[in-house]
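Example 3.2
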Amino acid sequence: ENNIPYPVAPLCSGGPERVIDKSFADLQVDDFACKPEMLPVRRHIEAISGENATLICRAGAVPAALITWYWNGRLLNNNSAFSSYQKVHIYEDGNFEKRSRLVLTNAQDTDSSEFYCVAENRAGSAEANFTLHIVMRSVTNAFGNGQIAGLSAALIILILFILLIILF
């Protein structure tokens, strides 16, 4: 700040091990990087079979972290196939507080498993695991309330009609 001349460049005496005893003149901006830190989010996600499942990972880091997703040790890439009838989409926003959303299309009960989010930069990495649980679509979700009422009325009329035929 004051441009004070010095005959010998100062050395770092504290901080991360990677900078201890290094001269300020030898350091780059990235040498002052902060290890990524996972920020709070829901780690247990429930989705309905046949719909999209969304997992959200948040990480804070300086410089900004690179976020990657894994499933069963397999790296998941944006717009890649998850299976023959499913795709993976990854959306990111933010910089030093980055949010990454993994969207799995057409989720099936066989997709219930663990997913991992890894955030890394020059200072290190951090990871978080997410449990995805797929539930079967309930009858009320598969049919609207009006459809259920109509089916119920039709069933009652059919039973009454059968009873009338039996009586005659």
